[in-house]
Amino acid sequence: MDRGLSTEEQGRLREANAAYLRKDYEAAHAILSVLSVDHPHNEAVQFGFIKCLVKRGEGELAKVVCGHFLKHTESEKIRSAYIGLGGKEAPKHRRPRPATPRWRFLANAVIVCIALAAVAGFIVAQPGFRSLMTDGAPRASATEPPATLEPAIQTAAIVPIPSPETVVPREPAAAAPASTPPSPIRTSRGNPPPFTKEVKWTEREFTAWTTSWGEYLEYRPKNVRRNPQVIVIAHGSVTDDEHALTWAQNYIQRARWMAVAERTGHIIVSPVFDRTRYTRYNRLQGGPAGPDGFVLAIVDSYSDYERPFFLYGHSAGGQFTHRFLLTHPHRVERAVVSAAGNYAFPDPEVAWPYGMKNAPNPNGWLTATRVPLTIVVGSRDTTQNPTNSPHQHGNTRIELAQNWVAWMHQYAARHGNPNCTFQVVVVPGTGHASAGIVNTSANHLLPPERYQAQR
After folding, report:
1. Domain region containing 60
2. pTM to 2 decimals?
3. How far apart are CA 72 and CA 96, in angstroms?
């Protein structure tokens, strides 16, 4: 179910309608593309977004959006628009099957247990049952004491987890020398199949690719360099696999990222972390070669092997981004983490993915502190314990970011790097949505004064 528009979002929708009436379709599109991500089933938002796409000359994309919308809800207005855009037959709305309440599962389990107990009692009460079960076996004396049974499992002592306010940073483990060779690409399920890719569809500057390890979206600017670097955008958690590619496209379509690509001449790619293969991509788990191996394979298909690239991730994508940096620091030129909900702290007594113990590449943590990294969080992003993850130090995303950066500065200083480059930037007046902090994120990932296209 789609939640209703908040007061602020209703105001944004009115602004979009006003811009549309002024024929300022670019401004209306910028607002509605953000609202369409957060409200994929809202008819007013989706219809306005479709109208803007048509006015911008993107009729095919508008038809695709209509088709996706009609699969999840009934709307005569959207259906008419779909047919008007050349759709032969409007997709039928699939009513979602109502979820079975948890109490009903428990009630059914109790009924089954009662029935089984009644059947067992009936069988045991039959006349020949006891003699059948004891024939040929020695009968115990009524006065013989029962044998003592040794316990099979010993109860472990429960160790309480200290609260974030009372935790004192432990002495980090000794870091490896900076010259330690980087670790190879990890695989999560043995030997993955070869990485191959083919075009799924192309529209203007966008190309969707299907690979043997998953899907991803590419945005190639008009003034692309001869040997461009790659900007990787890691999206947040998707709601369903059917719209995962559209979700990735919406992250790129926000005008700021396309403007960055045009300004710098670099290519943008957004890997699709669907819920089937990459459910735990934020922990670097899942897929044929791990989500980090998937990203490395995509980047290496565009440029020389092991050439550094730019990495940005929002929310769950931000969790992925900082863990990727700790594991493959030699592959990242600059990184921005946007509103992550948990972090891997440099604590040798806490297991990965929340600490250093058994981390994929413990030799990379010190090297990572030399890579420019910025964490961007909205000042209103104050949800308490946003992911309920263990071994975190802070109650909100702002506190978590500040404490993690402090821990990493301390870790770097103790192991020979007093100039750790990590920093936190709080954007005033905005919450968790990426639309409110994308401009700040883009400016820190590729500062305009440093990265310009070579004409």
Report:
1. 7-84
2. 0.62
3. 8
